[in-house]
From TrEMBL:
<keyword id="KW-0442">Lipid degradation</keyword>
<keyword id="KW-0746">Sphingolipid metabolism</keyword>
<dbReference type="InterPro" id="IPR001286">
    <property type="entry name" value="Glyco_hydro_59"/>
</dbReference>
<dbReference type="InterPro" id="IPR035394">
    <property type="entry name" value="Glyco_hydro_59_dom"/>
</dbReference>
<dbReference type="Pfam" id="PF21708">
    <property type="entry name" value="Glyco_hydro_59_C"/>
</dbReference>
<keyword id="KW-0443">Lipid metabolism</keyword>
<dbReference type="Pfam" id="PF02057">
    <property type="entry name" value="Glyco_hydro_59"/>
</dbReference>
<feature type="domain" description="Glycosyl hydrolase family 59 C-terminal lectin">
    <location>
        <begin position="489"/>
        <end position="580"/>
    </location>
</feature>
<dbReference type="GO" id="GO:0016020">
    <property type="term" value="C:membrane"/>
</dbReference>
<protein>
    <recommendedName>
        <fullName>galactosylceramidase</fullName>
        <ecNumber>3.2.1.46</ecNumber>
    </recommendedName>
</protein>
<comment type="similarity">
    <text>Belongs to the glycosyl hydrolase 59 family.</text>
</comment>
<dbReference type="Pfam" id="PF17387">
    <property type="entry name" value="Glyco_hydro_59M"/>
</dbReference>
<dbReference type="GO" id="GO:0006683">
    <property type="term" value="P:galactosylceramide catabolic process"/>
</dbReference>
<dbReference type="GO" id="GO:0004336">
    <property type="term" value="F:galactosylceramidase activity"/>
</dbReference>
<dbReference type="GO" id="GO:0005764">
    <property type="term" value="C:lysosome"/>
</dbReference>
<feature type="domain" description="Glycosyl hydrolase family 59 central">
    <location>
        <begin position="354"/>
        <end position="447"/>
    </location>
</feature>
<keyword id="KW-1015">Disulfide bond</keyword>
Length: 710
């Protein structure tokens, strides 16, 4: 601020007033902050910043992208000094049950089953490691198959289940797991973590660290005090891991205990549910404050990439990128990706948080200083809560580079832009920080805002769509998962037809899993939630006691904690019982629908309000026997709905509840068991149209596991 003052024109009081204003309104003097960086000060090890794949089958559509665009997305996420440059990845250890948006296939559906080629997390970890050899790999389970502990998660079976998964990761994919949790957000079991540590050690996995117990809420740190008095527990838990420290910070006594016992604190799931630049700057603020306030040296955000259908919960908001249109190859970055870049492109795991060089800015915001094992260092600032410009003057001493510093900034107008370098003079320099901005300054070089040109235009889901599954000559090369299907509960895998006449799809989970979220029935979805008038048909093969179905106008798949969809379902049992049902979403008490309850609904003709189902029609179909194929079809024309079995109309109803939505396949079950039917020749087309030729979606999609033999 400048004041034009001529002292001879002022009285003494006026002169004093002018001097007071000059001193107290000057931006430099009022908002200046001095920071001393001592390269010999030491500090806690930086264990990384990254994201979670899983906790809801969040990467399911990424695997189905054409290889060129798939590689571009992976580069933007993991390639050093290019995009987000994440240096920490956590994945879900799949368990066949819903864990937010959907389910992922287990490597052990039953106790006697073992297959390390199922699913896509193996592939994702391999691709991340291929791009960044220094990236750390972490894992945790949200749930497990029902056979584990005869329905008890905290069991020796679960410890063995984990060990098998880690061994498969190493033996098949050549990857070493760095750390693993006990279970995501499901309480504490001191006995289990001790048992788990012994099992890991006995299996030659002494170097795999256990973090515990990965919970959220005010009581998440209550168990930590036992580390001081329980030697076996202390030897079992290497890392104090919990979630959402931006909501409930680490108590001071826990921070002191972690330092005393030399056990780092990790935030194994942070959440940032915001849009646009607000998401990006809030992300960086949470990263900074996780260390400054909670002492967390590793932070992974839920979740990595939005590769789920838009009708699913949390389809976009937390993710760094959106890649949910593999049939077109279109993808896009969210501003949040560049929040990760402000860390990932300026520090590596094994650096240290420099003591005395992280904290709050005087006029709003935070800063963190990270030092390399040599002399390089980086400072990450965020000024989300600042209202005015402010300056920070740094003096450097000790083992720190005196080289010039690159400066990168993000704000509401532009993301990750390089500004003029700063050259220290006499081991000192000053930076001016705008409000509501992110800055990274560093003595390192090579940063860039990576991008790709000519990203394909977004297109609608292919229509008509006809899948025979015969294109998947080697199902294991595709992780046993067909393109574009998203399992919400249970697992639908590529399989041989029971009559050996080609490939088909089968729901393979025989018993309800120990699921993280309350389960409904096994189902998988695909298509476009804007579809209105269309028909969905499939051939189904029913084992004794099975009930299978096709789904239409599915426009909601649950809240993220619960999987009951909204839509219409045509169901056929092996006894010939055929039902047309409309579901209104989340069920009372999230209770599974067993056969007995279904019969009670039918008998009573009950029309559930929000939280249940309405039976629109029931008919007995002759000549339906276990071990035979039958065709089911739902046709939607306006509010008229026709159900067909083997090409013959069996039910005609009018219902006005839903006018649009996706398609899907359904395998019903009772309170404990699930049906395991086969599905083939899935056809989605205009009502009454002639059958199209099969949709060969894999012609430009390379298998994830192409080096695996047939």
């Amino acid at each position: 601020m400048k004041l034009n003052i001529r002292s001879q024109e002022l009285g003494s009081k006026g002169l004093y007033l002018a001097l007071y204003l000059m001193v107290n309104l000057s931006p430099i003097s009022a908002n200046a902050q001095n920071v001393h960086l001592n390269g010999n000060a030491g500090g806690k090890r930086f264990d990384g910043v990254g994201a979670v794949s899983g906790g809801g089958a969040t990467s399911v559509l990424l695997k189905d992208y054409p290889e060129e665009q798939r590689n571009q997305v992976l580069d933007l996420l993991f390639k050093p000094k290019f995009g987000a440059s994440m240096n920490a990845l956590m994945v879900e250890v799949p368990g066949d049950g819903n864990s937010t948006q959907g389910s992922e296939p287990s490597h052990m559906h039953t106790k006697d089953d073992l297959n390390f080629n199922r699913g896509y997390e193996w592939w994702l970890m391999s691709e991340a490691k291929k791009r960044n050899k220094k990236i750390t790999l972490d894992a945790n389970a949200w749930g497990s198959p029902a056979w584990v502990g005869n329905g008890v998660f905290w069991s020796q079976d679960m410890a063995d289940y984990y060990v098998k998964w880690i061994q498969g990761l190493k033996s098949v994919y050549g990857l070493t797991l760095d750390a693993i949790g006990c279970r995501n957000e499901k309480g504490v079991s001191i006995d289990f973590v001790k048992r788990f540590r012994k099992t890991l050690d006995a299996s030659g996995l002494q170097n795999v660290k256990i973090h515990a117990f990965d919970n959220w809420g005010k009581d998440k740190f209550d168990w930590v005090k036992d580390l001081e008095t329980d030697l076996e527990l202390r030897n079992a838990v290497a890392v104090i891991g919990n979630h959402t420290m931006s909501e409930v910070a680490t108590p001071e006594e826990v921070k002191k205990l972690s330092e005393r016992l030399n056990k780092p604190i990790w935030n194994t799931e942070e959440h940032t549910y915001k849009e646009g630049f607000d998401c990006e700057i809030t992300l960086v603020k949470s990263f900074n404050e996780n260390f400054i306030i909670s002492g967390a040296t590793k932070i992974v955000n839920w979740y990595l990439v939005g590769s789920v259908y838009p009708t699913e919960p949390y389809a976009e908001t937390p993710a760094a990128m959106i890649a949910n249109s593999p049939w077109s190859g279109f993808y896009r970055t969210r501003e949040a990706l560049w929040g990760y870049a402000h860390y990932g492109q300026f520090a590596e795991i094994g650096w240290q948080y420099l003591n005395g060089a992280s904290g709050k800015l005087n006029s709003g915001g935070t800063y963190v200083t990270l030092k390399s094992p040599s002399k390089d260092y980086s400072v990450i600032f965020e000024t989300k809560d600042a209202k005015i410009n402010q300056t920070a003057t740094f003096t450097i001493s000790g083992a720190l580079s005196a080289s010039k510093l690159c400066v990168w900034r993000s704000n509401e107008r532009e993301q990750f832009v390089r500004l003029a370098d700063i050259t220290p003079k006499n081991n000192s320099y000053t930076i001016t920080l705008d409000p509501k901005s992110i800055y990274s300054i560093s003595t390192t070089t090579g940063q860039q805002k990576g991008s790709f040109t000519q990203i394909p235009t977004e297109k609608k889901f292919p229509f008509p769509y006809y899948e025979t599954f015969d294109e998947y000559v080697s199902p294991k090369q595709y992780g046993y998962l067909p393109h574009y299907f998203a399992d919400i509960y249970g697992t639908f895998e590529l399989a041989e037809r029971p009559d050996n006449k080609g490939k088909c799809l089968r729901q393979v989970v025989p018993v309800r899993p120990i699921s993280w979220a309350p389960g409904w029935q096994a189902y998988t979805i695909l298509g476009d939630d804007k579809w209105q008038d269309y028909e969905i048909g499939a051939n189904v093969y029913l084992n004794q006691g099975d009930t299978a179905g096709v789904m239409g106008r599915v426009n909601d798949v649950g809240s993220g904690y619960g999987t009951i969809p909204k839509g219409y379902f045509l169901q056929l049992g092996s006894d010939g019982q055929c039902r047309l049902v409309v579901s209104r979403g989340k069920r009372e008490k999230n209770k599974p629908v067993g056969d007995a309850e279904q019969q009670a609904i039918i008998k009573a003709g009950k029309d559930y309000s929000e939280g249940g189902e309405k039976i629109l029609g029931v008919v007995k179909i002759a000549n339906v026997l276990p071990g035979t194929w039958h065709n089911l079809k739902l046709v939607f024309k306006g509010f008229a709905i026709t159900a067909l079995v083997d090409g013959k109309p069996v039910l005609n109803v009018t219902d006005t509840l839903y006018s649009h939505g996706m398609a899907g396949l359904l395998a019903l079950g009772g309170e404990t068991k699930l049906s395991t039917p086969y599905f083939d020749n899935v056809l989605i087309d205009a009502p009454g149209a002639e059958s199209p030729t099969p949709t060969i979606s894999s012609s430009n999609i390379k298998p994830m596991y192409r080096d695996i033999q047939k």
